[in-house]
Write a sequence for this structure.
């Protein structure tokens, strides 16, 4: 019994602490679903042990606090919260309860997004906005009228004739995903502390003492419910929302009226799959009985309405321990940290790794091994660490002094650079990564030469240089794990085939810093033979329109390196092709001429027209400059055409182009 009482006390204290972190500090340590499971546990214990029940328990109150820095406002009617469900089954049970209580099987429901923002109440007196308030503890909120007025999409005057005498509507203040990213970028530039999520950003921006700051942040408002209304009557929630639209509020399209559980479930599935595509962050859907008389009939518990339920989506955030920071050496020597986590369930999968990007990020997060961290999985597959929730070890994790693979010194090549590198060109870890890149699909494309094969060959000392790939034979493969005759033969064939890859792919495979696939192609087409590259000057590189100074310097440094000369010589000896084949050329009509393509063509796609130009010796660019000889303009050509006109570039249309080519 004492244990139960202790647990109840502990849960009450913990919930009060998390409430404070969430509502007042804008800095939650646990996800909503983790919070809800604490509430559920407490509710269950209180139910089973009525002796310990208390009206002061967080299970009996609407969460939230009233901050002292704003004036207080009493809400005309309490602002309640919603009951949550996390599964289709629980939702179905709620649905059945509603129908049973109403003794009606044809109840209409609205399904609305549950936008993750901050709730606010707006009071209009005879159509004029007079009070904007936060929810506070549900009874009393903070007066944030000036901040509310600073939100662009909130009308200061309702845009209708004969507005209701008293109209208190409620909704969510939120920030769009893109505006959130932009805001955080600006904050980081100004050396500030970025917001962990859009909800925190909205809340932080709304509760600014200086409403000018609120005005600068791009906040939006979403109407979802109402308090006291005088001088207007509605029959349905959907009718109320439509009226708000007429009054000048922006309504979301992602809203549906449903007539059956199946319709609700289908819409839930659609929204769940579209979640990451929406412009705003939603943490679930709110299902409401549409008819207001039915809502009245169902009434309220002391915390939430019986006529609505929030179906919460799987959490995207969770807390766990960061067990280890792993440091890996990439093919260019850059060392990248990543986090190995105590496995935790998140949005339906078990997570055990998170990205850390670079050592600056580690410093910014002030994270170290052993710390308890909040992780988030947003859109992307690999989760990221949002913040440290509890520090277990002083300070942050520092980059190692030496490469774990070869022991060489780890350095930052220049001060402005973020990356730390192992600069030993013979570092085995770098070489392994380079091999993986060299054989990859977009490089030399050796099918079947995956990292498992590479690891086994490295272990057996079969590859020490890139050229060694070309000396491998059937007998080297046949005793590798999972290799049989056919697979070994296929791999030998793929290796032989890759010797004929054009220079463009070889350049990309060699892994020249800053030189990607596209630049490799441009360089190969221009120089045709690798020998020419060894003797080319920086000026010869920069003559190519697409090659700027950074790329030119990188090329010069690469081809001036003795090790590179040696690597290329061994590849030549192994029979690897070093030239770029001539592309099919019909003529020299556009030799040396630069084109820009803009607008929609009738007979070809822009890519096809580009190929025609190239086959006559011309080149294509995508940015307008004085160097351009022709602008080929199709229908609806926009700003590029305008710019080209200003620069006096010769503009031709599709017909003129065809005539030129026909000659
Ligand atoms: S209806 C009686 N509809 O979620 C409560 N609330 O967890 C009436 N929320 O405090 C609220 N989207 O701030 C409603 N479509 C929506 C909502 C929504 C977000 C918020 C609201 C509420 C909280 C409850």
């Amino acid at each position: 019994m004492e244990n139960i009482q202790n647990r109840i006390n502990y849960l009450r204290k913990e919930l009060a602490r998390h409430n404070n972190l969430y509502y007042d500090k804008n800095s939650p340590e646990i996800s909503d679903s983790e919070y809800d499971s604490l509430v559920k546990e407490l509710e269950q214990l209180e139910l089973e042990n009525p002796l310990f029940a208390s009206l002061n328990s967080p299970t009996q109150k609407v969460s939230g606090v009233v901050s002292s820095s704003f004036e207080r406002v009493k809400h005309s009617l309490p602002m309640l919260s919603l009951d949550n469900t996390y599964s289709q089954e629980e939702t179905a049970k709620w649905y059945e309860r509603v129908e049973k209580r109403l003794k009606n099987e044809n109840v209409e429901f609205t399904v609305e997004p549950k936008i993750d923002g901050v709730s606010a109440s707006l009071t209009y007196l005879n159509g004029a906005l007079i009070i904007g308030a936060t929810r506070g503890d549900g009874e009393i909120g903070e007066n944030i009228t000036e901040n509310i007025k600073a939100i662009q999409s909130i009308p200061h005057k309702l845009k209708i004739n004969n507005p209701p005498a008293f109209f208190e509507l409620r909704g969510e203040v939120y920030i769009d995903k893109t505006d959130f990213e932009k805001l955080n970028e600006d904050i980081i530039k100004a050396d500030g502390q970025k917001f962990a999520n859009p909800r925190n950003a909205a809340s932080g921006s709304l509760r600014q003492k200086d409403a000018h700051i609120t005005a600068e942040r791009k906040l939006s408002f979403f109407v979802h419910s109402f308090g006291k209304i005088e001088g207007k009557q509605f029959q349905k929630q959907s009718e109320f929302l439509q009226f708000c639209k007429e009054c000048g509020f922006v309504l979301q399209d992602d809203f549906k009226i449903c007539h059956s559980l199946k319709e609700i479930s289908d819409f839930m599935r659609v929204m769940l799959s579209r979640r990451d595509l929406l412009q705003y962050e939603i943490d679930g859907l709110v299902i409401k009985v549409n008819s207001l008389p039915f809502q009245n009939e169902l009434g309220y518990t002391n915390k939430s309405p019986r006529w609505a339920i929030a179906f919460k989506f799987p959490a995207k955030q969770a807390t766990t321990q960061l067990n280890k920071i792993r440091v890996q050496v990439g093919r260019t020597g850059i060392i990248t940290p990543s986090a190995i986590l105590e496995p935790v369930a998140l949005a339906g999968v078990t997570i055990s790794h998170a990205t850390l990007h670079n050592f600056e990020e580690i410093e910014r997060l002030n994270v170290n091994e052993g710390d308890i961290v909040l992780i988030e999985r947003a859109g992307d597959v690999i989760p990221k660490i949002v913040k440290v929730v509890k520090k277990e070890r002083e300070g942050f994790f520092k980059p190692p002094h030496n490469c774990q693979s070869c022991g060489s010194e780890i350095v930052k090549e220049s001060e402005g650079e973020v990356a730390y590198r192992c600069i030993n060109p013979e570092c085995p870890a770098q070489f392994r990564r380079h091999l993986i890149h060299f054989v990859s699909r977009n490089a030399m494309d050796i099918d079947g030469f995956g990292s498992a094969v590479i690891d086994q060959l490295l272990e057996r000392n079969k590859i020490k240089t890139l050229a060694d790939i070309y000396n491998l034979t059937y007998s080297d493969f046949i005793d590798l794990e999972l290799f049989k005759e056919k697979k070994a033969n296929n791999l030998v064939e793929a290796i032989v085939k890759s010797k004929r890859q054009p220079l463009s792919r070889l350049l990309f495979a060699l892994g020249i810093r800053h030189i990607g696939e596209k630049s490799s192609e441009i360089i190969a087409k221009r120089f045709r033979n690798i020998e020419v590259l060894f003797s080319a000057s920086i000026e010869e590189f920069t003559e190519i329109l697409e090659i700027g100074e950074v790329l030119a310097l990188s090329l010069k440094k690469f081809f001036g390196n003795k090790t590179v000369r040696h690597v290329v010589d061994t590849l030549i000896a192994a029979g690897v092709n070093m030239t770029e084949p001539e592309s099919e050329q019909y003529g020299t009509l556009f030799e040396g001429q630069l084109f820009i393509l803009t607008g929609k063509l009738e007979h070809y796609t822009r890519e096809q027209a580009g190929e025609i130009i190239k086959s006559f010796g011309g080149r294509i660019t995508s940015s307008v400059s004085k160097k351009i000889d022709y602008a080929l303009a199709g229908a609806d050509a926009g700003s590029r055409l305008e710019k080209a006109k200003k620069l006096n570039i010769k503009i031709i249309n599709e017909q003129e182009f065809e005539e030129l080519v026909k000659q």
